[in-house]
C-alpha cells in the first residue's frame, strides 16, 4: 500500500445533493488501482453511510468522529459512551425539550423526539430515524446526536465534562467520548497496521476536519472550506461541486 487518503463526506466527497459524482467515483477507482486505500472520515455512522460507500466503492472509514474505525470491512476500533452517561443525557434532553439520536456501528434511533429532527436530518438530505426511546438501554452507544439550536450545547458541556461536542450543522451537535476525533481515529488505524510512517492525505471542509488535516502528511482544503482549513492546508482544491476531489488527487499525482 502506497498510502491512505481520507475524505470527509458533506461538503467534500459529496456534491450539493449529498451524492457522489460520477467523476469522483472514477477518481476513487483510479486511486485504488494506483495503490492507495481510500477512507471515508465522517461524523456519520456506518449504517448511515452504507449506500454512499457502496456507490463510491470504498470499504474503510473513520466513523462518528473517530468513535469507530473500519478497515476493509473489519472493525478495528470502537469507543462506547457509558450507558449511565447516555441515560443522564437522555433525561436532561427530555426535560429541556430537545431531540436526541443514539448511534452504534449497526443501528441508530431517535430516543427523544423533537420538531427539530426534521431540520437536522433534512440538512443532509435524509429523513429522521424511527423513535425507540429504550434503544440505548439494550445496545452499546458510540455517539449521540443532540438536536438543538445554538447555544444549547453550552449547558451540556458543563454537565458532561467527559464528552466532546461538535456542532456541524445549525440544527444538531455530535456528542462523542472526550478526546476522540477523526485525527485520533486515523492515528489508531495507522498504529493498528504499524503504518505510522505511511503517506497520508486528507480532504475536508468543516470544523470537525481541522484536527484531521493537521494529523496527515498532506492536508487538502476544499474550495468551499472554512477559512481556518484553508490556512492550515498544504493545497486548496476546487469546490466539492466543481471536481474538488478529482483536482486534488491530480495535484498530488495520485491519479
Fold and architecture overview:
The structure is a single chain. By secondary structure, the protein is an alpha/beta fold. The chain has two domains: 3-78 and 180-252, 3-Layer(aba) Sandwich (Rossmann fold), CATH 3.40.50; 83-177, Hypothetical Protein, Haloacid Dehalogenase-like Hydrolase, Chain: A, domain 2 (2-Layer Sandwich), CATH 3.30.1240.10. The chain is built from eleven helices and 13 strands. It has helices at 9-13, 22-33, 46-56, 83-96, 116-122, 135-138, 153-159, 182-192, 210-215, 227-232, 244-251; strands at residues 3-7, 36-41, 61-63, 68-71, 74-78, 99-103, 108-112, 143-147, 163-169, 172-177, 199-204, 218-221, 235-236. Strands 5-4-3-2-1-11-12-13 form an eight-stranded mixed sheet, sandwiched between helices. It has a five-stranded antiparallel sheet with strand order 7-6-8-10-9. The radius of gyration is 18 Å and the shape is globular. The mean pLDDT is 97.
SSE inventory with pairings:
Blueprint: E1 3-7, H1 9-13, H2 22-33, E2 36-41, H3 46-56, E3 61-63, E4 68-71, E5 74-78, H4 83-96, E6 99-103, E7 108-112, H5 116-122, H6 135-138, E8 143-147, H7 153-159, E9 163-169, E10 172-177, H8 182-192, E11 199-204, H9 210-215, E12 218-221, H10 227-232, E13 235-236, H11 244-251
Parallel strand pairs: 1-2, 1-11, 2-3, 11-12, 12-13
Antiparallel strand pairs: 3-4, 4-5, 6-7, 6-8, 8-10, 9-10
Amino acid at each position: 500500500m502506497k498510502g491512505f487518503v481520507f475524505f470527509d463526506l458533506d461538503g467534500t466527497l459529496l456534491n450539493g445533493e449529498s451524492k457522489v459524482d460520477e467523476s469522483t467515483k472514477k477518481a476513487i477507482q483510479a486511486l485504488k488501482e494506483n495503490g492507495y486505500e481510500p477512507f471515508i472520515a465522517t461524523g456519520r455512522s456506518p449504517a448511515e453511510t452504507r449506500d454512499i460507500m457502496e456507490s463510491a466503492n470504498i470499504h474503510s472509514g473513520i466513523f462518528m468522529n473517530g468513535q469507530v474505525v473500519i478497515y476493509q470491512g473489519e472493525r478495528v476500533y470502537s469507543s462506547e459512551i457509558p450507558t449511565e452517561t447516555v441515560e443522564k443525557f437522555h433525561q436532561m434532553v427530555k426535560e429541556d425539550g430537545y431531540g436526541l439520536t443514539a448511534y452504534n456501528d449497526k443501528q441508530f434511533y431517535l430516543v427523544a423526539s423533537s420538531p427539530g429532527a426534521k431540520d437536522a436530518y433534512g440538512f443532509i438530505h435524509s429523513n429522521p430515524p424511527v423513535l425507540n426511546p429504550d434503544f440505548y438501554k439494550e445496545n452499546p452507544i458510540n455517539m449521540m446526536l443532540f438536536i438543538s439550536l445554538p447555544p444549547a450545547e453550552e449547558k451540556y458541556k458543563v454537565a458532561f465534562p467527559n464528552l466532546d461536542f461538535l456542532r456541524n450543522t445549525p440544527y444538531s451537535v455530535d456528542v462523542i467520548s472526550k478526546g476522540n476525533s477523526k485525527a485520533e481515529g486515523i492515528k489508531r488505524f495507522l498504529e493498528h497496521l504499524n503504518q505510522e510512517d505511511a503517506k497520508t492525505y486528507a480532504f475536508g471542509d468543516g470544523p470537525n476536519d481541522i484536527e484531521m488535516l493537521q494529523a496527515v502528511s498532506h492536508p487538502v482544503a476544499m474550495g468551499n472550506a472554512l477559512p481556518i482549513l484553508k490556512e492550515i492546508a498544504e493545497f486548496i482544491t476546487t469546490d466539492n461541486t466543481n471536481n474538488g476531489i478529482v483536482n486534488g488527487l491530480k495535484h498530488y499525482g495520485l491519479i
